Amino acid sequence: MLQLYIGNKNYSSWSMRAWVLLRQADIPxxxxxxxxxxxxxxxxxxxxxxxxxxxxxxxxxxDGDTSVWDSLAIAEYAAEQFPEKQLWPxxxxxxxxxxxxxxxxxxGFTALRSACPxxxxxxxxxxxxxxxxxxxxxxxxxxxxxxxxxxxxxxxGGPMLFDQFSIADAYFAPVCSRLKTYQLPVPGEIAAYIExxxxxxxxxxxxxxxxxxxxxxxxxxxxxxxx
Length: 227
Prior knowledge:
Elements: E1 2-6, H1 13-24, E2 29-33, H2 44-50, E3 60-63, E4 66-69, H3 71-81, H4 92-107, H5 110-115, H6 125-134, H7 136-156, H8 167-181, H9 188-199, H10 201-213
């Protein structure tokens, strides 16, 4: 069986993408959660993950003797190994578009990711209001997300970005969580898409587990001193 190594569900956006993809697609896997306790070489997290992969990061997928690190590589591996799941859109142009926006998310939106780190359990609406007021780069990132999603939802008719659930929706699920945690303003059709993503069984299962974690990791809490 596949093994997926992940970090804390409340904080690990990279882990969320791979986990949600496999869970929502009903691909069996064994979860291996490695708690975030630090990223220096002496931390338990780093020692555990460095023994398993050259990057020492999560997520990490192991399939027998094969190891796949990085969330986008894991998505591609899953699509290749389970073609019947149709994880990418079947249409060539739509598939190219889906790959492009996942790559854009993978290497972009740095202002939003930096100012609004994922924290599913927290209510950071007040922080969000300040970030929105003061950080033009975050506003630009959110504007790009809204434009992208609106176009795709109209083009493909919803309910997901490419009609049916795909890697793209799994890839943007952590962003949906950020937008909710910080209550950043988005148009009504985008808010509706965010809610649909949150109601996907795979996403809901991740969120429920994150809320049940009850693990306050100080290094992932730039805005709170305690729960």
